[in-house]
Design brief:
The complex is a heterodimer of chains A (about 725) and B (about 160). Chain A is built from 23 helices and 23 strands. With about 725 residues, chain A is of the alpha+beta class. Chain B is mostly beta strands and about 160 residues long. In chain B, the strands form two sheets. In chain B, strands 8-1-2-11-10-9 form a six-stranded mixed sheet, with no helix packed on it. Chain B has a five-stranded mixed sheet with strand order 3-6-7-5-4. The longest helix of chain B is centred in the first third of the chain and has 4 residues. Chain B is globular. Classes of the chains: A alpha+beta (about 725), B mainly beta (about 160). The interface between A and B is medium-sized, with 30 and 26 residues. Chain B: InterPro entries: CheW, CheW-like_dom_sf, CheW-lke_dom. Chain B: One of its GO terms (biological process) is chemotaxis.
């Protein structure tokens, strides 16, 4: 088997790798939390093993060599020869990261960092102890490595087999190859050869099924093999030989001991669950040795007697900390996108229908109205269901952050522990993808700026190891992601000092704690005097904030001196729909995002003051808010003199600018499907996007940030005028 | 290919002919996605005067350009008799407002003439040639020049 597998197989291998790597990191996570039971290690081992196997099939020698090395160390852990100390686990995590790198560079046909491979390899050797001859030969001569399914057996020296295995016993194997076995490039003879190393074996082949030459289909497989193997290795090792063919062959293994034959079970699950990922979950746990094992070490007492194992095994096999992955299908993103668009259309059509019907003066109990109500519900449910297709758990995102933290921890020399919470919370895939950069920046910040040095921590009576917590939770239709650290908190004195130095704050101005914290989001603000390796690359929290705000999210900080800092990001679950207030402005229907609206007022009851020539401000509860007419801003009309027939909407933006917008009237509040204006036209100042109303016409969605950015100064008004330009620049970045 | 000797028809192109402010125009039929009746547009703030607004084309937001205004022939007071020709130019879907679509013609390259010199520069910028057809002169519209350019006009 060499290079040259078709692109499609290659692509699906790399997709599979992602899942396997995720499973591996999950496993490490569990192990760090102290759950280093056999099953967890087994899952990790299998993930690495499967990556190696697949990589071998595509001739990715570098990847195979490293995975092999890594696997050897994991196998030692599995065999109980190495204990999973913190150091070992940390090394494993780094190896896992490197394995991810190798996978990515293999995918992109790039060269990975050989120095890293070598360094980690050496560390692995230290952990493993002196490598056996076979192992060192393999790691040195990676290129000549023969990527066959049975290579793992080279490294399964007999002494790693537990002593509990009965001597002089063996197995009876029935092996029926399905045609796929051969199309995948496997060769039964090699498998049998691998078995031969474990002991004396007799192989017989059943040719009864082979038809006459005239009817022989060369693409079919007609042979059945029976192997009588006398060996003292465990069943798991035998099973490993067939690991890569388990989905394209029927294999039954039964024990053969002195007292006769006692079957230990059909190998049903491997056939029923052909996907290699799942195979890792359904394979029997290590304890299933064909011996009398004490009942208490088994997951279920039912497995205690060999007779019961026959029936119990398929049911109990998927026992593991992580539930078996749900059945999934891979779908082209474009197809889902199209579906989402169509459903958006459906919802709009439904609204149009309702509107059309409402013109006909039907009585409230009318059949048509009832049916339309039913249609409405159905359309709503379909919309929800389709949106859910794109929803993905934040877990992979968090795992990427785990890696960032490990890297940051290595660079800064601070020991960091990452805690993840609520990683099952789901967010739209597009949101997730766009969160990678901002989150990376923030967790790096948390390690670099947030956590104190080890000495400072110890002096403050804290554990030397810092903790960074990533959490996700759903709150009223939005997802809230928090990045918190248990560091020293924000040094507000210093922040203020820097703010004054850079002309962001008037010296001596009275600032509240949150106003000072808000300075961190100002463009050009940097806490570090020197540019460190991690931060100071010209990307500040201001950029992070505009990225979040471009996603329709808000950011906030809370910090307590000596206890740590929490950054909260609140995001919409999807970028495709938005909760909006539908308003009339100069005969135009427009939509204002509900998240921005603080309150609505009738001008008659509101305090409006005029300043200068026509500039108006509204006083709401002791604060003055500039008033702006949407109609005038968009050039639809001149600002009306008399506001009595109008409504005021007080909005607040992500950058805490407030202003009151004059609109003619409010229509209603509803979910609208967001349509891009830029696809076929241009960006329009003050407009975020467009949507389609019930009557099929287009309404424009107002961009509160753009509107307020043009008229309202930041709320705290601490900024000196020159900085305002910079702020506008920043808010433009967000678009 | 040499046409006359081998007896082949000269290479023909089909164009859609339409009328804007009393003048005949045409462009390659391959650029036409569909032709629709006039629908009310949603006004875009701060847009060029020739951008009538946007319409909903089966879920897409499509801007409509008033060709008459764009060509300097006066603003169209659009009504139900007008048509919107939907075209795709450089990946952008754009609607062009015209009085009426008159014909679909097969035009040979031979029939295509350069724009006469006396035409004003403004018109020249939008026209890439003229076709003489049954005694009429049809102006070939340069689509890329009439659509609102992306990015530039945002400021």
């Amino acid at each position: 088997m060499s290079v040259g597998g078709s692109d499609q197989f290659r692509a699906s291998f790399f997709e599979e790798c992602e899942e396997l790597l995720e499973a591996m990191h999950d496993g490490f996570g569990l192990m760090i939390d102290g759950n280093d039971d056999d099953e967890t290690i087994h899952v990790v081992f299998r993930a690495v093993h499967s990556i190696k196997g697949g990589a071998g099939a595509f001739g990715l020698d570098g990847l195979v060599a490293f995975a092999h090395h890594f696997e050897t160390a994991l196998d030692q852990v599995r065999a109980g020869k190495i204990s999973t100390s913190d150091d070992v686990l940390s090394l494993f995590q780094h190896c896992g990261d490197h394995l991810s790198d190798l996978v990515v560079s293999a995918r992109d046909d790039k060269d990975a960092d050989p120095a890293q491979t070598k360094a980690l390899g050496a560390q692995l050797d230290d952990v493993i102890g002196t490598p056996t001859e076979a192992e060192s030969a393999l790691s040195d001569a990676a290129v000549s490595f023969e990527p066959l399914a049975l290579d793992f057996m080279d490294l399964a020296p007999a002494e790693m087999v537990p002593d509990t295995v009965a001597k002089k016993s063996g197995f009876l194997l029935d092996f029926t190859a399905e045609p796929e076995l051969f199309t995948c490039g496997n060769e039964p003879a090699l498998l049998f050869k691998a078995l031969d190393r474990f002991g004396q074996g007799r192989i017989s082949v059943n040719v009864d099924e082979v038809p006459g030459l005239a009817r022989l289909d060369p693409m079919m497989s007609y042979l059945q093999w029976s192997i009588d193997l006398e060996t003292d290795v465990s069943e798991d090792i035998i099973r490993d030989v067939f690991d890569f063919v388990s989905d394209c062959a029927i294999i039954t293994i039964s024990t053969r001991d002195a007292s006769g034959l006692s079957p230990i079970g059909e190998d049903g699950p491997t056939v029923e669950n052909p996907a290699p990922v799942e195979a890792s979950a359904v394979l029997p746990p290590l304890e299933n040795e064909p011996t009398d094992v004490a009942p208490e070490v088994l997951p279920e007492p039912a497995e205690a007697t060999p007779e019961e194992k026959t029936t119990a095994k398929p049911a109990t096999a998927p026992v593991s900390k992580a539930a078996p992955p749900p059945q999934t299908i891979r779908v082209d993103f474009e197809r889902v996108d199209k579906l989402i668009n169509l459903v958006g259309e459906l919802v709009i059509k439904e609204a149009m229908l309702s509107q059309a019907v409402s013109k006909h003066d039907l009585t409230s109990g009318d059949e048509v109205l009832q049916e339309i109500e039913g249609l409405k519900q159905l359309a709503g449910e379909i919309q929800e269901g389709v949106m859910a297709i794109r929803a993905q758990p934040v877990k992979p995102l968090f795992q990427r952050m785990a890696r960032t933290i490990r890297d940051a921890s290595a660079t800064t020399g601070k020991r960091v522990r990452l805690i993840m919470k609520g990683e099952a919370a789901e967010v739209d895939k597009t949101v997730l993808e766009r969160l990678v950069d901002p989150l990376n920046h923030m967790v790096r910040n948390a390690v670099d700026h947030g956590l104190e040095s080890k000495e400072d921590r110890l002096a403050a009576g804290k554990p030397a190891e810092g903790t960074v917590t990533l959490s996700a939770a759903h709150r009223s239709g939005r997802v809230v992601i928090e990045i918190s650290d248990d560091g020293g908190g924000i040094n507000r004195e210093k922040v203020r000092e820097i703010g004054e130095e850079r002309g962001l704050v008037t010296p001596g101005a009275a600032l509240t704690a949150s106003e000072i914290d808000a300075l961190l989001f100002m463009p050009g603000f940097s806490m570090k005097d020197e540019v460190s390796e991690l931060s100071g690359r010209g990307v500040g929290l201001d950029v992070v904030r505009s990225e979040i705000s471009a996603l329709g999210g808000r950011m906030s900080i809370s910090s307590e001196m000596g206890k740590g800092t929490v950054f909260s990001i609140s995001l919409p679950l999807t970028l495709a729909v938005l909760e909006g207030m539908v308003v009339d402005v100069a005969g135009q229907t427009m939509v204002i995002p509900i998240t921005a609206i603080q309150e609505t007022l009738q001008p008659s009851s509101a305090q409006i003051h005029t300043i200068g020539s026509g500039s108006r401000v509204l006083s709401v509860r002791d604060s003055l808010v500039p008033v702006a007419d949407l109609g005038a801003i968009f050039g639809f009309r001149d600002t009306p003199d008399d506001l009595d027939d109008h409504t005021l909407l007080v909005i607040e933006t992500e950058t805490e600018r407030r202003c009151a917008l004059i609109v003619d009237s409010l229509q209603d509040q509803r979910q609208v499907v967001i349509k891009s204006l830029e696809t076929n036209y241009n960006r329009v100042d003050g407009i975020a996007a467009a949507t389609i109303l019930g009557d099929g016409r287009i309404a424009l969605i107002v961009d509160p940030e753009g509107i307020a950015g043009g008229i309202a100064p930041p709320q705290s008004s601490l900024m000196t005028p020159p900085r305002l330009d910079a702020l506008e620049g920043a808010s433009n970045v967000a678009k | 290919m040499s046409q006359s000797e081998t007896g082949f028809q000269p290479e023909q192109k089909e164009v859609v002919a339409f009328r804007v402010a009393g003048q005949d125009f045409c462009f390659d039929i391959m650029s036409v996605r569909e032709i629709r009746g006039w629908t009310e547009t949603t006004t875009l703030p701060h847009a060029q005067s020739y951008v009538k607004g946007v319409i909903n084309l089966r879920g897409s937001v499509v801007p409509v350009v008033d060709l008459s205004d764009r060509l300097g022939l006066g603003v169209t007071e659009a009504c139900e008799r007008h048509v919107i020709i939907i075209t795709v130019v450089d990946g952008q879907t754009i609607g062009l407002l015209a009085d009426v679509v008159s014909d679909i013609l097969a035009v040979t390259e031979d029939a295509m003439h350069a724009v006469p010199d006396m035409v004003s520069d403004q018109v020249k910028a939008f026209i890439s040639g003229v076709v003489l057809f049954e005694g009429k002169m049809i102006r070939r519209l340069d689509l890329t020049s009439v659509v609102p350019s992306k990015g530039l006009e945002a400021a």
